[in-house]
Design a protein that fits this description.
It contains 24 helices and eleven strands. By secondary structure, the chain is an alpha+beta fold. Among the domains are: 4-86, no CATH class; 262-383, Butyryl-CoA Dehydrogenase, subunit A, domain 2 (Beta Barrel), CATH 2.40.110.20; 524-673. A hairpin with a 5-residue loop joins strand 1 (158-162) and strand 2 (168-173). Bound molecules: flavin-adenine dinucleotide. Residues 264-267, 271-274, 299-301, 353, 356, 361, 517, 520-521, 523-524, 526-527, 530 line the site of flavin-adenine dinucleotide. Belongs to the acyl-CoA dehydrogenase family. InterPro entries: ACDH-11_C, Acyl-CoA_dehydrogenase-like, Acyl-CoA_Oxase/DH_mid-dom, AcylCo_DH-like_C, AcylCo_DH/oxidase_C, AcylCoA_DH/oxidase_NM_dom_sf, AidB_N.
């Protein structure tokens, strides 16, 4: 057991005793030391915890951890402290130190990279106009929207299947905050902005930035917005045909009373990834040219939406359907009729989810749903792909925004939490941890800006072939990479709050639970990695040529800046390795590339983000932190596919060895290896 001397030593070691001596007189210090010893005797070896037990008195009188004990030496306070030391917690049942909570600041003004990005790329007049809107909106987030988002988390949607008299009603009941989010979305033009094209090719990027600010405060209303945006895009790409004009107007409205949201019903019991085989929904043509749909949709999010796009197989005159992708057509439907009755839909149940609970996600029986076929027969998957581009970009927005938000909250907290004698922002290791998170978030942010910029060009017919190829390649890469990184960064972010990061009522754990979906819906990491390969094959390698030449250009520019030349060199080396890999792997056949797909996609992501960070840092208006983050990014292995290839990870033996490893000792594969 430690004696008094050791206890004092321990306190000194933790940088606390000196602080006590400053805030208390010698006699009191002595009393404190004695108390410490007593506590220590009860809590063998748990010096820090014992200290924490008596520590409140050290901070007593200070309003927050921001103003440590140095500032309250008054006699009366000292007497109060002494009284409490004698009988800790006797008259204050729970003690009187309360940690100041992290607070949300203006997320636009706090985002240095966002501000410098728009300053660099947008015309000055546009910068000042949109900045004013962003500042106002970010303030609205602090004052109004963020707490609505929390309300959505606390007041979850529920399904009322029957009314009091036994009639089937299938009402999805959502809270008032969720409904208010719909109004906010319309008022703020969160979908409309992209389609009004007020800012020409920048309209898309300007919309994306606004959703990026909104997302972590939105109570997951960004989920219906993603699908609404996707549906508007599909309808627009079909040339807004007359029967869909009304729906398009609703989806892109700024008027809360006429704004509609849309669902996207693809996943069925047999598959969300494999919709070609998984889709069992059938469509019977009616005399008036409409269809009646029958099927079972296994995951339908934001099922309180006004309309949906869905896939089904048209039944021919002989009662047959075509199997596979070629049998799938795209349909438009309204969820309720003019009287508010469900359109041949039964809501079987709401899903019990890990996160995103604010969003009603349901299983639906389609029992004669009236629908319009909106794609040529058998072109359903091709037609809905426009929706997927948009929803994958929205997924990327949520991922990047989640990283940014947790970092901003954690850095605020680090300036309020006082441990081991100083604020945690004064502990270099903590700041290094946050700096690493920051580099990830910055890289992901620039990636998001890049695909939004490319999409904006495409939507205004200003994209070159190269831009279009890049957009096709990078959209799944950005979605898969940022989804995974968001989980890692947000998890690290929770740790930055210590135990409080794990407490539900701080609102922080929900960020991690919600982030998990980012890697699953709209395509899992593997499915998207295979989609990347598909884009390479379908374009005869043109998407890769666009990638290599764009990356090369950016690196050439950055290598002329002395502070960036080393990082540019390192990134160029990785790019060359990736080039060599693609040339070699092209000869090695399908299985090889399938095994390499995930590492390949990661290599594309890491290298491209590296070039974006370098490119931004090479701009004459770049800051020292822009340069530093580009340097830090390039420290890592940017081409994991090369390393894994060298160690034989994609060789044919690996396939069998991987299987043996996974099913080691399992009866599932006995005799089959
Ligand atoms: C909260 C939530 C909301 C959702 N909302 C909607 C919605 O609104 N509309 C909608 O249509 N869907 C929705 N989904 C469904 C979602 O899009 C699918 O779950 C997802 O696409 C995965 O499909 P699956 O569940 O069939 O998984 P599976 O396809 O069965 O995949 C299982 C695993 O196998 C892997 N895998 C599959 N095929 C391959 C392959 N060829 N190579 C390597 N690995 C492979 C996958 O990566 C995954 O890890 C939602 C899902 C969630 C969780």
């Amino acid at each position: 057991m430690m004696g008094e001397g050791c206890w004092t030593e321990a306190m000194l070691q933790y940088g606390c005793a000196s602080e006590i001596c400053l805030c208390l007189g010698e006699r009191e210090t002595c009393c404190m030391v004695k108390l410490g010893s007593l506590l220590l005797a009860r809590h063998h070896g748990r010096i820090v915890n014992s200290w924490a037990l008596c520590h409140p008195s050290c901070h007593m009188g200070s309003k927050s951890a921001m103003s440590p004990a140095l500032s309250h030496p008054a006699d009366t306070q000292q007497q109060g402290i002494l009284d409490e030391l004698k009988m800790p917690f006797s008259h204050a049942a729970i003690g009187n130190f309360f940690q100041e909570r992290p607070s949300l600041g203006n997320q636009f003004l706090e985002d240095a990279l966002l501000q410098s990005y728009i300053k660099r790329h947008l015309p000055p007049q546009m910068v000042s106009e949109v900045s004013q809107d962003y500042i106002r909106f970010a303030q609205r987030l602090v004052e109004e929207i963020d707490s609505l988002g929390r309300d959505c988390e606390l007041n979850l949607p529920r399904l009322q299947q029957y009314d009091a008299w036994g009639r089937r009603v299938d009402q999805i009941i959502t809270c008032s905050a969720w409904k208010k989010m719909k109004e906010v979305s319309a008022e703020e033009g969160l979908v409309a902005e992209a389609y009004e094209r007020r800012y020409s090719s920048w309209s898309r990027l300007i919309q994306v930035i606004k959703i990026y600010l909104y997302s972590p405060s939105a109570g997951l209303f960004t989920c219906p917005l993603a699908m609404t945006d996707g549906a508007a895009k599909v309808i627009e790409s079909l040339g807004v045909p007359e029967p869909l004009q009304n729906a398009y107007n609703h989806l892109t409205s700024r008027n809360p009373s006429s704004f509609w949201t849309s669902g996207q019903w693809m996943t069925e019991r047999r598959g969300g990834s494999d919709v070609a085989v998984g889709t069992e929904t059938i469509a019977h043509r009616q005399e008036d040219g409409t269809y009646r749909l029958h099927g079972y949709k296994w995951f339908t999010s934001a099922t309180d939406s006004d309309m949906s796009l869905t896939l089904g197989r048209v039944v021919d005159n002989h009662g047959n359907t075509v199997v596979g992708t070629k049998g799938l057509s795209l349909f438009y439907l309204e969820v309720r009729d003019a009287e508010g009755n469900l359109n041949g839909i039964e809501v079987q149940r709401l899903k019990e989810k890990l996160g995103t609970r604010q969003v009603p996600t349901a299983e639906l029986l389609l029992d004669g749903v009236k629908a319009l076929q909106i794609s040529p027969e058998g072109r359903g998957v091709a037609s809905i792909s426009n929706m997927l581009t948009i929803t994958r970009i929205h997924n990327t927005i949520s991922a990047v925004a989640g990283m940014r938000r947790i970092i901003n909250l954690a850095r605020d907290y680090a300036a309020k939490r006082f441990v081991f004698g100083k604020l945690i922002k004064e502990h270099p290791l903590h700041i290094q941890t946050m700096a690493r998170m920051e580099v990830e978030a910055r890289g992901a942010f620039l990636f998001l800006m890049e695909i939004s910029r490319l999409l904006g060009l495409e939507e205004t017919n200003m994209a070159t072939q190269q831009d279009q190829h890049l957009l096709r390649l990078l959209t799944p890469v950005a979605k898969l990479y940022t989804g995974k990184q968001a989980l890692a960064v947000i998890s690290e972010g929770l740790e930055c709050f210590g135990g409080q990061g794990y407490m539900e009522d701080t609102g922080l754990p929900a960020m991690l639970r919600d982030a998990q979906v980012l890697t699953i819906w709209e395509g899992t990491t593997n499915i998207l990695s295979l989609d990347v390969l598909r884009s390479v094959i379908k374009s005869n390698g043109k998407v890769l040529s666009a990638f290599f030449s764009t990356a090369q250009e950016k690196l050439d520019r950055a290598s002329c800046v002395p502070s960036l030349s080393q990082a540019a060199k390192h990134t160029m080396k990785a790019l060359n390795k990736l080039m060599a890999f693609t040339q070699e792997a092209g000869q090695l056949g399908g299985n090889y590339m399938e095994l390499a797909a995930r590492d390949f996609a990661y290599s594309l992501a890491k290298i491209y983000i590296g070039t974006l960070l370098l490119d931004h840092a090479a701009w004459e208006g770049a800051s020292a932190t822009d340069i530093y983050s580009a340097q830090r990014w390039s420290d890592q292995d940017l081409c994991p596919v090369d390393k894994a290839k060298a160690s034989g990870c994609y060789d044919s033996e690996s396939m069998s060895l991987d299987r043996q490893l996974v099913y080691d000792n399992s009866p599932l594969l006995k005799g089959k290896l």
